[in-house]
Design brief:
Chain B: It comes from Parnassius mnemosyne (clouded apollo). Chain B: InterPro entries: NDUFA8 (IPR016680). Chain B: This is NADH dehydrogenase [ubiquinone] 1 alpha subcomplex subunit 8. The complex is a heterodimer of chains A (about 150) and B (about 180). Chain A is mostly helical and about 150 residues long. Chain A has helices at about 35-100, 130-135, 140-150; strands spanning about 110, 115. Chain A has one domain (about 35-150). Chain A has a two-stranded antiparallel sheet with strand order 1-2. Chain A starts with about 35 loop residues before the first helix and ends with a helix. The model of chain A has no long low-confidence stretch (mean pLDDT about 90). Chain B has a domain at about 20-130. Classes of the chains: A mainly alpha (about 150), B mainly alpha (about 180). At the A-B interface, helix 1 of A face helix 2, helix 3 and helix 4 of B.
Chain lengths: ~150, ~180
């Protein structure tokens, strides 16, 4: 057992010439611009962008005004046509309701068994019906088409 | 429905006139000249419509507007149909929202034709967005009378004593 402990051992020592010095010195990234240059660049680019933005904004505004002019010029014609068709449809609806409720005793058109819905307006005043009432006597397909447009426009 | 039998609705025959059967692109193409040509009728109708706030009262003005529009497009058809169709086609197919800005060349051709044949100049930029004064013969509808409530709280008499404010002012939160 004593012989086994006689092996020559090599002590763990630094390499010849010693360890390399530890590189603890700070190595900053290469700077292309100073802070002031960056601020100046930011301001310069922003001013340029504002100028270009305003050029485009003027163009867009002019376009909007032109389109609005074109729409407003034809609006009276479209409104006149719409009014006529609307009044025609109101009459059709009223006739349809009279026909539908013909056999119900005591029913008066536009009222709930003679009780008016709007009591404070004069009897001749035209109260525009809500969407569902306006489409009440049409086919569900037409109702759906119109409701679909209205939800998505 | 809220429309009772007492509500006077015009007959179908009163409302049936020849309507303008044109596409949006065509209407847009002719819109500026149309607005200038029918300015009187349009202003009359729109004033009536907004003052009265009732479609039944402006049927005749509306018919005048439609008749004027029909007259205008008939004249355009007689004089400048090729230029008009070219311009409307351009508006139709150049963008999704009938923009006028892509069709300056065809617009120039159309404007020239309108000026030469119908002596109608294109109105200046933004003309229809400006407020305009319209003189009409139709009497103004009377304003809605102020509501009178029989059970309203009676006000102070005019000769009631009015002391100066105790805390310097009479703002609404200072209930003296």
């Amino acid at each position: 057992m004593a012989e086994a402990c006689q092996i020559a051992r090599k002590q763990d020592l630094p390499p010849p010439g010693g360890y390399k010095p530890i590189p603890f010195k700070r190595v900053p990234a290469k700077t292309y611009f100073s802070g002031y240059t960056l601020f100046a660049g930011y301001i310069g680019v922003t001013i340029g962008a504002i100028y270009l933005y305003n050029l485009t904004l003027k163009k867009v505004k002019k376009h909007e005004i032109e389109m609005r002019s074109a729409k407003m010029a034809i609006y009276p014609m479209l409104l006149a046509e719409r009014d006529r068709e609307y009044l025609k449809q109101l009459r059709r609806n009223r006739d349809a309701e009279a026909e539908l409720m013909r056999d119900v005793p005591g029913w008066e058109v536009g009222t709930y068994y003679g009780e008016r819905i709007y009591k404070l307006v004069p009897p001749d005043a035209l109260v525009e019906p809500i969407f569902h009432e306006y489409y009440a006597h049409s086919s569900p397909t037409e109702w759906f088409k119109r409701a679909y447009i209205k939800l998505r426009s | 429905m809220v429309v009772t039998a007492d509500v006077v609705l015009p007959e179908e025959s009163e409302l049936t006139v020849e309507e303008v059967n044109l596409s949006t692109a065509s209407l847009r193409a002719g819109s500026f000249h149309l607005g200038k040509y029918c300015e009187q009728a349009n202003n009359e109708f729109m004033l009536c419509r907004f003052e009265e706030d009732d479609p039944r009262k402006c049927i005749n003005e509306g018919k005048a507007v439609t008749a004027c529009t029909m007259d205008f497009f008939r004249k355009v058809k007689k004089a400048c149909v090729a230029e008009f169709n070219q311009y409307a086609n351009c508006i139709d197919k150049s963008s999704g929202d009938f923009s006028l800005q892509h069709c300056r060349k065809t617009q120039g051709v159309f404007d020239k034709c309108m000026l030469e044949n119908l002596n109608l100049e294109r109105p200046p930029f933004g003309y229809f967005c400006e407020p305009r004064v319209h003189d009409t013969k139709r009497p103004k509808p009377p304003p809605e009378p102020k509501a009178v409530y029989p059970d309203a709280t009676p006000g102070l008499p005019d000769d009631a004593e009015r002391k100066p404010a105790r805390f310097g002012s009479r703002f609404y939160w200072m209930t003296e």
